[in-house]
């Protein structure tokens, strides 16, 4: 246990410094990607070239909050090739107006030789920079909402039928909130975790069991005490921030520190510590280790700390 205690003390001394460094690094990353975009977007003349340059394409998608659809190149091609003067065109017919705004940011239709004019490019890069602030704001807002509302939940239906709460808790453990049925979610939440044959225990993705563990429902759907303890709400918040963050923000750094502090005392050896991917990542970041270094090598380094 002495090795873990020594290592924890060292991390605690350095964590504020590392948080500051991570913030600087994240800002540098934003500026680096913006510079790349500004230097290279003018070289693009076709949709194929744009979609083929992942850094340009993903940068633009992030700017409009569409990063979850970056994989859908065929779909985005239809957006970019839409005739915006036609009210029935693909982009104009989309309910989510972000796609129309995305199409309006480029000039892939018509005879123009400039994919983006100066105003369009400036608006896009400004939106990219603002998206990071918006992400942090959203993370905090959703976590605050969940913490405030979960204490008011008095039934299984009250939780499952609240779309905002339902989305939050599924996103928190890395599950797809769009394609999860309410009936299956209820079966998971009312699973007997002591029964190997229960729905949560039988699920292929261990995230379902983790979700069931985050709440206190009995198998008949009634609540055992409170729907969540304060610790369960806090743990779900840390998971939500970790799984929904796309860059190393202060909010993520704070969540990672809190996760470390809550969990490091439960491990007795370096091997146990590096078995947790989040604590392993925290150690790598705190000591500027190569991100690709093997967990076993990190454990060996920890064992050498005196």
Radius of gyration: 23 Å
Total DSSP E strands: 0
Order of SSEs, N→C? HHHHHHHHHHHHHHHHH
- Structural class by secondary-structure content: mainly alpha
Strand content: under 5%
User: What is the end-to-end distance?
Assistant: 12 Å
Uncertain regions: pLDDT < 50 for 5+ in a row?
none
- In DSSP terms (H or I, runs of 4 or more residues), the helix count works out at 17
The largest β sheet comes out as: none
Overall shape: it is: globular
Helix content: 55-70%
Mean pLDDT: 88
Keywords summarizing the entry:
306 residues
Could you explain how this protein is built, in words?
This protein starts with a helix and ends with a helix. The protein has helices at residues 2-40, 47-52, 54-63, 73-80, 90-93, 98-104, 118-150, 156-160, 163-172, 182-189, 199-202, 207-213, 230-244, 250-263, 270-274, 277-286, 295-303. The chain has 306 residues and is mainly α. It is built from 17 helices and no strands. Helix 9 packs across helix 13 (230-244). The mean pLDDT is 88.
Concise account of the structure shown:
With 306 residues, the chain is mostly helical.
């Amino acid at each position: 246990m002495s090795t873990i205690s020594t290592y924890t003390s060292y991390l605690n001394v350095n964590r504020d410094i590392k948080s500051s460094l991570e913030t600087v690094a994240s800002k540098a990353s934003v500026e680096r990607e913006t510079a790349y975009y500004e230097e290279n977007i003018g070289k693009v003349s076709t949709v194929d070239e744009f979609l083929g340059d992942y850094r340009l394409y993903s940068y633009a998608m992030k700017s409009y909050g569409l990063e979850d659809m970056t994989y859908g190149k065929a779909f985005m091609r239809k957006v970019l090739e839409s005739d915006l003067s036609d009210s029935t065109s693909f982009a104009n017919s989309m309910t989510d107006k972000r796609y129309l705004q995305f199409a309006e940011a480029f000039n892939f239709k018509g005879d123009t030789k400039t994919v983006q004019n100066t105003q369009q490019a400036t608006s896009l890069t400004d939106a990219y920079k603002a998206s990071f602030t918006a992400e942090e704001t959203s993370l905090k807002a959703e976590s605050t909402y969940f913490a405030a509302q979960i204490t008011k939940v008095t039934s299984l239906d009250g939780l499952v039928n609240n779309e905002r709460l339902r989305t939050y808790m599924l996103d928190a453990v890395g599950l797809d909130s769009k394609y999860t049925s309410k009936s299956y979610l209820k079966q998971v939440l009312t699973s007997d975790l002591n029964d190997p044959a229960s729905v949560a225990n039988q699920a292929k993705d261990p995230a379902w069991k983790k979700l069931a563990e985050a709440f206190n429902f009995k198998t008949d759907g009634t609540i055992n005490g409170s729907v969540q303890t304060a610790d369960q709400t806090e743990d779900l918040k840390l998971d939500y921030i970790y799984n929904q963050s796309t860059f190393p923000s202060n909010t993520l750094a704070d969540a990672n520190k809190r996760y470390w502090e809550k969990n490091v005392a439960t491990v007795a050896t370096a091997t146990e510590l590096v078995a947790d991917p989040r604590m392993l990542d925290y150690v790598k970041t705190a000591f500027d280790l190569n991100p690709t270094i093997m967990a076993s090598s990190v454990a060996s380094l920890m064992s050498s700390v005196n």
